[in-house]
Amino acid sequence: MIAHVALPIPITKTFSYTVPSLWQPYIKPFVRVLVPFTNRRLTGYVVGIEEEDDKNLKEIHDIIDIIPLIDHTMASLCEWASRYYITPIGMVLKYAIPASLQPDRYLLIHKQKGGSIKLEGISLNRACKLYKKETIFKYLEEGAIELRDIFTGEPFFAPLIQSTGTTEPEHVLFIGPVQSRLEYYLTHISKAFKEGGNVLMMLPDYSMTGTYFYNLLNKEFPGRVYWYGTAIKSKARMATYFHARHGKGMVILGNKNCVFLPIAHNSLIIVERHEEDDYRNEEGFRFNAGQVALQRAAIENIPVIAGSASASVELFNRVKNGKFKIIERPLTPFKEYHEIVTKKYRSPFGAIPEEFIDTVKSGVERKERIAIFTPRRDYSSLIQCLDCRKILRCHVCEGIVSYQKKKDGILCSSCNTLSPYARKCPYCGSAFLRFSHIGVEYIEGLLKEHFKDYLVMGVTAETSKEVMRFFEKHKETIPLILVGTHTLSKLYGIKVERLILFGWEELLKIAGYRAEEKSFHILTNLLDALTPQELYIFMDKKAAINTAPFFNMKAFYEAELRKREEASFPPYGRIFLIEVEKKHSLSGAAIIKKIMEEEGIKDNIIGPVVQKKKRLKWKIIVRGKGERLTQALFRLYDLPGVRIEADPLSI
Ligand SMILES: [Zn+2]
Ligand SMILES: [Zn+2]
Fold it and tell me: Could you tell me if residue 414 is inside a domain?
């Protein structure tokens, strides 16, 4: 027998191995196997089986799973994702069936009919260690013993039962404040429960939106809410895995990790804040779980609800095309609006204008709860010498460096090298350095100094757990100042009186073709989560913009779609980033030439071919869609030094 095995490496082809006769009865599509590869052992996934043999092939070392851990529906979702995101199936399967998924530790052996060894009540994992794995597998295959998991007590071999689906499942885009979204979700979850179904609910993150929805849903449906994701302990995750296989009337909550989780009777998918970048996975298999969730609903033929205060332009386009039904509820309006345009001048507060401090002060005097949004996290992301005018750069790679107050060091944004802060210019020795592009750390420090009796808290992805713990403990509304990045917009239900945006308009320079959309999402989601009564927007005179379009949702989407259509940007075409990294310019140029001449690619190139001086890196942007482009990109995938990214966040 020959098994074709997909390996979790960035190579598109699969590898063939001969299967020793003792493992042959257990080789099935998508089981994990341990195979030799160069001089290592890798976990691979069986994707094809042939009955004839080839003795020249290397042998499979071991078989890991007694049955495949994903069902055929999830397998076809993985296959779709592999093509959609131009990623080898082995890398997709590694994400869908991670190494940490170890059911054999939680499967107990039941009902011993035959066999001469005593196995009853011990785990599969232990049984395989005490006796030979092939013996245990043989008993299982013959039905002499049976496996039941410790969480549900159900037999493991029972097939996963799909929901029968509906003839015309509804796809709904719900745009409204979090309170009305929640009510809508609850109604539809109850409906799914009544029909004996389960619900998959996707959330951007675990510690903030996860905690919020877990608590609310668990109150409504006690004991029927399960979390799945890497953020929780492996035993709890396995509990969810087994419940999802067998249970009924449950909500499975999870972030991007749970989009490939097999769920029996899955009859509704909810995606909360589908537009959040947290749904993007950036390591290994690069994909967007919000997007994959929509495809999952299509494959399972079940309804999907995407809910948000500010839907993505892409989803709004689906509404226009009649693929999604839209339901709208108005956001809680704010009472006061102030726009403050400041000029760069010498302020007694360094990089912070005086008016900003005054605005915070007047709120503090009224004992208000104040939230301050700023796009950057670091103390200062740009350090410039005021004497020689040079910008401080990394001594390793020439990347721009930021100042990290807590570590008193400078950090390179490109290569992450942290070096001590010398307090003088490395080029001319001057001590006159200016911190600009300031972030949360800077403002937080300044306000702590100024308002000593007031509680000031930084809210970033790094501190989100502490912040949530604080609000769990202090349910009463004590006066405070929250300074944060877009993480602030995930503090659902934490009411503030005053919301101040500082540097929000700079997002328009940072975020590429999605800049307007990102700015709109952040503003709207901050208003949704924090429900302020007063909104202050501080803008630098040079960068000041007209804010009116950001407060008119429909007009905003229409204008954005018109712009995208003219440029054939998403959702009118997809974008792929091809990066080429080479040591020598000659070999790089040869690869670039090959890419530029590739059929299906050459007519679609829009981006410039940029060459970064130090690392010899080329970037090519390909725009388009369709099977021909997918095939062309897969042909380029295996070229040495080439990396392809679908739907990049920034280009
Ligand atoms: Zn200098
Ligand atoms: Zn560097």
Answer: no
